[in-house]
Amino acid sequence: MSAYAPNPQNGPIQRHPDNWHSAQARHTTEGPAHSNGISDKVSGFFGSDRREGLPMYKDKPFSYPGSRKKHPWYKQRRTVAVVLTSFAVMSWWFGILSPLSYFTSGDGEVQAAVKEKAQTSWFGNKVPAGDWEARAQKVKEAFKTSFNGYEKYAWGYDEFNPVSKNSRQMVPGGMGWIIVDALDTMMLMNLTDELTHSRQWIHQNLTYDQDHDVNTFETTIRMLGGLLSAHYLSTAFPGVYAPVDDGLTDDLYVEKATDLADRLLGAYETSSGVPLASVNLQSMKGIPSHADGGASSTAEATSLQLEMKYLAKLTGEDHYWDKAENVMKVVDDNQARDGLVPIFIYADRGTFRGENIRLGSRGDSYYEYLIKQYLQTSQQEPVYQAMWNETLEGIKKHLITYSSPSNFTVLAERPSGLDHHISPKMDHLTCFMPGTIALATTGGLPLVQAKAQPNWGPQQDEDMRLAEELMNTCWGMYKASPIGLAGEITHFNIYDPPLMYGSFPQGEKPASPASFDTSGPGAEFVGHDDYIIKAGDSHNLQRPETIESLFYMWRITGDEKYRNWGWEMFESFIKWTAVEDGTGYSSLQNVLRDPPTMKDNMESFWLAETLKYFYLLFSPNTILPLTDVVFNTEAHAFPRFQLNKLFSTGWERKPRDLVPEAKQGQEPDVTVNTIVRTEVHMEGEEKTPERVAGAAAGATPDVLVEAEGGRDAVTGKEVPVT
Predict the structure, then answer these.
(1) Which class of enzymes does this protein belong to (predicted)?
(2) Which is nearest to 534 in space by CA: 598, 490, 481, 494?
């Protein structure tokens, strides 16, 4: 088993696994032992006789009380007639006895029509191609199946095993881990019954005053994020998303969110302000990681800001803002080379541990939250755009390479630092990146509109091509598997020496085969020789990152192929992850086996992220436009908002050297005009404005182009012309 996939018995899968403390309270297939006070509503959902009845797959025994003894079936004329008629109909349907079969060959049109008749979907009816409303409905049905199975077998529990029907709490009284994480998905899908049931549980059962430690990051993005997103959808769109009339206060979500955030702030009480990995909910004291020398994950420490800033905006309490914002300053003060940060940071010192650089586990959402913080505050904090621009150039320079022989774009790792070997490995987690690059490049505008903006140029075209090529690579992870589902980690064959992104001029970068998406799956895939899925990395956790990027790419480019890829992926999930009794969907042990075996675990992000992004991909673009919202790293939607007198960027970047001192015998490894875009001109030399790498269309340019001044791309500060 991969280091990125702890046993589900030890708690829910995390993006950046650490020692996760799970309460030992469990229950099995008999269902929850506790009462939630709303048994009437539960029985209304499932029918009053479900619990007492026989299993649905069992027939009543011959001597079942109340039955009437009958003759054997073969002695009943009515039964014989029905059987013969049914056989005749089935024979005609499948072409065995059809008169038309005598006039056509096995490859004829009638045989093709018969075959088409027989190919019904897993929901009973084939969904017409291009009927996106119907496909969104199928996603909604998959969500209902998953959630209703959870309601029936594990209601109120934090972990659910859909095969065995077992469940477990992470803390003694439960965190509402699955319920809270799924709230906004229910709302977007207009599932009022499920939402009413969930709100009642939150009102009656959910308390964070529990003497137990939880992961700071996971609790922030899933629980705090889920509550805040539910508050946003219920208050900003009254009567639109699953309106309920249950007599509960409209402040239910934000009150719980504020209580939780106050407890989480204890993790930030360190000498540097970088939060510790865990926090005790009752004592509100932070707890360092039990591994990695006590260091915190860099991604975890820097992926709390969207949540805390939005809560500060809602409540007017600036200490949430200040605590979260300070973390960004501490991290940036380390002046990581080319903006690429090691994946661990010591909370007590505020300095990095080691030199491992990757955009997978423990590194990913640091980069994601740079550009999303810039967009969340309506492009009024250019420091975060400057940081994004720097990191994107660093990624191109150090981490982008190409597979052999098919030239797929690989977002690789540098496990020993930027001066050492490149590792051609991509966690599935890295597949957030194609969509994030597209979002950063356009600011969320449709591509046609973005290209009409005055600051669009060749650099933006190049960045969109990079997003498209990385999207191809991530979709290839699914095509490379015989069942059409990606493994947790994929390795690649690459050239020796590696071909690097910067080795090719703009507009002449290698590209993946044009026909790759029509090939496969498995051994038939065009990139079969490029992709390597190792046995220990072959599990599938129903992760959302690839469908997340497909959603962004569809919204931004309008290219329907991304929707079609998403539908193909969705069908594979439904086909291979559905549990045998049809009550839910499970993660898988091995995508290299056909059929695969179940892992018997349903992560909360299956409901919160994966199915939500599928639903949004197939739904109209008017639902949560990208120009109005930002999604946190758990797919919870927050509004973009304006800064005001209470909230502003409370820090500035330290000055960077234009060209860091090169090691002896080496050429300087930074090209100045890709990082610091403030131009210096000799007297009498004509000024030529430079396009801004990675700038969002419509955003304030971070390059000095006019006499009135501009912004330094590294510090984000206003720079006067001299």
Answers:
(1) hydrolase
(2) 490
The 3-state DSSP class for residue 111 equals helix
Identity of the amino acid at 479:
K
31 confidence band (pLDDT: 50, 70, 90)? very low
Number of H helices and E strands in the chain, helices first, is 23, 17
Helix (H/G/I), strand (E/B), else coil: 550:
helix
CA atoms within 13 A on the CB side of 398: 27
Band of the pLDDT at 54, cuts 50, 70, 90? very low
For 691, the token pair is: 């396009």
> How far is residue 603's CA from residue 384's CA, in Å, rounded to a whole number?
31
Q: Which one of the listed residues 194, 368, 488, 690 is annotated catalytic?
A: 488
Give the DSSP H/E element, type plus range, for residue 364: helix 364-376
Packing angle between helix 39-46 and helix 132-154, nearest 10 degrees?
130
Give the phi and the psi of residue 213 in degrees, each rounded to 5: -95, 145
CA R_g for the chain: 28
| Encoded tokens for 540 | 């599938």
DSSP of 174-234, one letter per residue?
---HHHHHTHHHHHHTT-HHHHHHHHHHHHHH-----S-EEEHHHIIIIIIHHHHHHHHHH
Q: Do residues 263 and 284 touch, judged by C-beta distance below 8 A?
A: yes
Is the preceding peptide bond at 521 cis, omega within 30 degrees of 0?
A: yes
> Which of 211, 121, 93 lies closest to 568, judged by CA?
121
Tokens of 219: 């609790």
Classify strands 278-280 and 296-297 as parallel, antiparallel or unpaired: unpaired
* Amino acid letter for position 72: P
Phi, psi of 167 (to 5 degrees): -155, 170
Residue 670 makes CB contacts below 8 A (sequence gap 6+) with 338, 659, 660
Residue 495 clears pLDDT 50, i.e. is over it: yes
Residue 563 has pLDDT above 60, yes or no: yes
* Cα distance between residue 202 and residue 545, in whole Å: 28
pTM: 0.79
Q: Are 268 and 286 in contact (CB under 8 A)?
A: yes
For residue 595, say if its preceding peptide bond is cis, omega within 30 degrees of 0: yes
Spacing of C-alpha 380 from chain mean position: 26
Strand partners, 256: none
As a whole-number percent, the residues of the chain with pLDDT over 90 amount to 70
pLDDT surpasses 50 at 536:
yes
As a 3-state breakdown, the chain gives helix, strand, coil percent values, each rounded to 5, of 40, 10, 50
Picking from 60, 48, 699, the residue whose alpha carbon sits closest to that of residue 382 is 699
Residue 598 in 3-state DSSP? strand
Q: What is the mean pLDDT of residues 146-164?
A: 98
φ and ψ at 400, to 5 degrees? -90, 120
Longest dimension (CA), the chain: 108
How many Å separate Cα 224 from the centre of its chain?
16
Q: Say whether 488 is catalytic.
A: yes
CB 305 within 8 A of CB 327: yes
User: CA 167, 150, 610, 597 torsion: positive or negative?
Assistant: positive
Encoded tokens for 715: 């510090």
Write out the two tokens for 300: 């975890």
pLDDT score recorded for residue 515: 87
- pLDDT for position 85: 52
Cα 526 to the chain's mean position, in Å? 27
Asked whether the beta carbons of 672 and 417 are under 8 A apart, the reply is: no
Q: What is the mean pLDDT of the chain?
A: 81
Residue 109, phi then psi, degrees to nearest 5: -65, -40
* 213-215 and 637-639 strand pairing: unpaired
**What is d(CA 493, CA 531) in angstroms, rounded to the nearest whole number?**
7
Are 358 and 343 a contacting pair, CB within 8 Å? yes
For residues 481 and 546, give the distance between their C-alpha atoms in angstroms, rounded to a whole number: 15
- How confident is residue 519, by pLDDT bands cut at 50, 70 and 90? confident
